[in-house]
Every structure is written in C-alpha cells, then in structure tokens.
Write a structure and sequence with these properties.
By secondary structure, the chain is of the alpha+beta class. It has two domains: about 60 residues, Arc Repressor Mutant, subunit A, CATH 1.10.10.10; about 160 residues, Chorismate lyase-like (Chorismate lyase). Helix content is about 25%, strand content about 35%. The chain is built from seven helices and ten strands. The strands form three sheets. Strands 4-5-6-9-8-7 form a six-stranded antiparallel sheet. A hairpin with a 3-residue loop joins strand 1 and strand 2. The protein is elongated, with a radius of gyration of 22 Å. The mean pLDDT is about 95. Bound molecules: 2-acetamido-2-deoxy-6-O-phosphono-alpha-D-glucopyranose. 2-acetamido-2-deoxy-6-O-phosphono-alpha-D-glucopyranose binds next to helix 4, strand 6, helix 6, strand 8 and strand 9.
C-alpha cells in the first residue's frame, strides 16, 4: 500500500483511507493502539505534519482518540441517534450505559418572541428553561437546553433532575405523554463554552438538534441540543423508490 503523490486526492486523505482499511485488516479492536506518528511517517514515506493532519482528522471524526503521553487508540463505534421521541435516559439504558444529567441552569423566564412562536405560545408566557449536561457512564455526550411552558407543568422547577428523567417526570407527575414530535439536525461547530463542558477541542464538529415535542397537539418541549459529532451518527432506513421516480 503506497501513497500516490500524483493523485489529486490529498496525501492526508489517502493516508486516512489506508489507515482505516489497515485497522480492519489487522483486526484491531476498540482501545487498541495504532502506530505512532513517527512510525506511520516512515511506513508511508510521509512528513510528520501530514501524518498529524490525518490523525487530527480521524480524531475529529471519532474514529481514533489520543491519550496524551500514551499514544493514539481505536475509538468506540459511534452511537446511532434514534429518530424517535425517546428520552436520553431510555436510550442510554437500552444501550447498556448509565445515563446522567448535570444541572447547568434552571429558571422560569418569559418566552422570547422566537421561542413563543415556535412553541405556539403568546409572547411573554412563562417557560421553564432547563439546561443540562448529559452523560453516559460519566462521559459528557450532549448539552441539552429545554423550554417547557409553565402552564402545562406548574412546579416542575421544584423537581430535581440530576438523577431523574425529564420525560418520566412529565409522565408520572403531570400525566403528559408525548405523542408526536419533529426534529431538525444540523452540522455545527461547538462554541467554546459547550466545548469545555463536553471535553472537546475548540472548533470541534457537533450535531445541533432542534426538537419540538407535542402532547395532544400542544407543544410541551422545545429543545435545542448540542451533541458530540465524534460520538453520534445518524442512521435512517430509506423509503423504497416509487416507480417513475416521483
Ligand atoms: C432527549 C431529547 C431531549 C429531552 C431528553 C429527555 C433531543 C435531541 N433529545 O435527549 O429533548 O429533553 O431526551 O431526557 O432533543 P430525559 O427524560 O432522560 O431527561
């Protein structure tokens, strides 16, 4: 396997593809070390800078991770984001992780114009703002910012959320069963504050989610969330093509 210097494909991209193939061929599994940058440089006849660029890319993609002073290792496969109205707690438990939440902020404030419009509320209606850092086995995975109308959940601010699922409180304490929802997912760059919370390098890629959840036609939650792009990916089944392609 060699790098083709005449190819229009940049050398660091060629090395990325070689390395990914090699990891499979060599039968490496999660947490196994990959060769050092120096070794890869001499193996492929590439400069240390090019090798570093490739490793940086694979780390940002969530395929490898670095441990300072120890080396670079094969990362766990990404979590497939469910395209369903599941709660973080349910989803993590179903995958065998222990879900967690750290309260970052909680307050009641009047809904701004945009929030009110998106939630179908009169502007200025009181809404709960709930900001949480979500963790799986203690590892930060996402920052979630939820807006919930006080009118449907009076007193929600008195329930601790650290050890409890928000959706189960809605169900058990307020009798609210979310029955429909919609979600927009965009690629984004982590802002410095969220990067710190999520343990990411500045400028790391993230998935920005905007979810509206409804019960009986009423919007109960507007959630603006930042998920680590190195730990999450989207997967969806595709509808079959219709004859004629329309
Ligand atoms: C999911 C939802 C979030 C909701 C949370 C409740 C997204 C992408 N996800 O993470 O809106 O607040 O579940 O989880 O928006 P909980 O019941 O574990 O607190």
């Amino acid at each position: 396997m060699a790098i083709d210097p005449t190819s229009p494909v940049p050398k660091y991209t060629q090395l990325r593809d070689h390395l990914l193939d090699w990891i499979v061929e060599a039968g490496l599994s999660v947490d196994d070390p990959v060769p050092s940058e120096r070794e890869l440089g001499s193996r492929y006849g590439l400069s240390r800078m090019t090798v570093r660029q490739t490793i940086d890319l694979l780390v940002a993609e969530g395929k490898l991770y670095r441990v300072p002073g120890k080396g670079t290792f094969v990362a766990r496969p990404k979590i497939e984001m469910p395209l369903a109205l599941t709660s973080f707690t349910e989803d993590m438990r179903a995958r065998g992780y222990e879900p967690g939440a750290r309260d970052l902020a909680r307050r009641i404030a009047p809904a701004g114009k945009n929030t009110a419009r998106m939630m179908g509320l009169p502007p200025g209606s009181p809404v709960h703002h709930i900001e949480r850092l979500r963790t799986a086995d203690g590892e930060p995975m996402a920052v979630e910012r939820s807006y919930i109308p006080v009118s449907v959940t009076p007193g929600l601010d008195t329930y601790p959320l650290s050890g409890r699922s928000l959706y189960s409180i809605l169900e058990e304490e307020f009798g609210i069963l979310l029955d429909s929802g919609e979600q927009t997912i965009e690629a984004g760059i982590c802002d410095p504050a969220d990067a710190k919370l999520l343990g990411l390098a500045h400028g790391s890629p993230v998935l920005s989610m905007q979810r509206r959840s409804f019960a009986n036609g009423k919007c109960v939650e507007l959630a603006l969330s930042t998920y680590r792009a190195d730990r999450y990916q989207l997967h969806s089944r595709l509808d079959p093509r219709r004859p004629g392609g329309t």
